[in-house]
Design brief:
Helix content is 44%, strand content 9%. By secondary structure, the protein is mostly helical. Helix 2 packs parallel to helix 3 and helix 4 packs across helix 5. The longest helix is centred in the last third of the chain and has 15 residues. It binds zinc ion (ZN). Zinc ion binds next to loops. Belongs to the adenylate kinase family.
């Protein structure tokens, strides 16, 4: 299922909810989830949240809580547009708070440090709009479920 998801992402397609739920079902049955787990960035939509609720019920489980991390749009934009990633080893830098010792060069491996295509102001702005449209409604969903901590 992971390979199917990777193929979809490499083709620039969205990964379908069915595929995501299949991956989640497999992952949550692994031994390291027996004592509990934290889901970060999932679910992203109301249909995914509803499917998760059904899936957990079938496993005899429920969510303990949902947490909203509320960060102002301009703060998110500033943090992500100043982030840089090493094209060699993947080390993360920030031009303001954690720049490499030599501008544009990784401290660890010497390869170029670059801005990722999905971390330009336009790309992040698009991601935030998608978040507002599709993910922000989860706050109300989990509030209604009595699960929201904020
Ligand atoms: Zn590096």
């Amino acid at each position: 299922l992971g390979n199917q998801a990777k193929a979809a992402m490499n083709a620039g397609d969205l990964v379908s909810d069915d595929l995501i739920m299949g991956i989640m079902a497999e992952r949550l049955k692994e031994d390291d989830c027996k004592a509990g787990y934290l889901l970060d960035g999932f679910p992203r939509t109301i249909p995914q949240a509803e499917a998760l609720k059904v899936m957990l019920a079938e496993m005899g489980e429920t969510l303990d809580c949902a947490v909203e991390i509320d960060v102002a749009r301009d703060v998110i934009l500033d943090r992500l547009t100043t982030r840089r990633t090493c094209s060699g080893c993947g080390e993360i830098y920030n031009v303001k708070s954690n720049p490499p010792a030599v501008e544009g060069k990784c401290d660890k491996c010497g390869e170029p440090v670059v801005q990722r295509d999905d971390e330009t102001e336009e790309a992040i702005s698009n991601r935030l709009n998608v978040y507002n449209d599709q993910t922000a409604p989860l706050v109300g969903f989990y509030k209604n479920e009595g699960l929201l901590l904020s």
